[in-house]
Amino acid sequence: MQISVKTTALAILASLGITACGSSGGGGGASTPANNAEQTKQIEALKKQVELEQQAARSAQNNANQATQQAKVSEQAKLQAEANLAKAQKAVDKAAQDLATAQQAVKDAQAATAAEQAKAQKAAQDLAAAQQAVKDAEAATVAEQAKAQKAADKAAQDLAAAQQAVKDAQAATVAERAKAQKAADKAAQDLATAQQAVRDAEAATTAEQDRARQAAEQAARELAAAQQAVKDAQAATVAEQAKAQQAAEQAAQELATAQQAVRDAEAAASAEQAKAQQAAEQAAQELAAAQNQIANLEAELAPIRAEAERKRLAAEEEQRKWAFLTQDGAWRHLNKDYNTLMSSSGHSFSFDSSGKAAKWVLPQGVDFNSAAIDDNLKSQPVYATETTLREEKQHQIATARFINQQYSTYLNWERNTSVINTDDAYLYPGYVALPTTSNSEYIKNATKATYQGKALKRNDFGNQPVSLGDFSLAVDFENANVKGSISNLDGYIYTLEQGNIALDNDKVIFSGSYKSSYEYGESGSYRGVFAGPNAEEVVGKAGYNISFGGKRQ
Question: What domain range is 548 assigned to?
Answer without folding.
Answer: 333-552
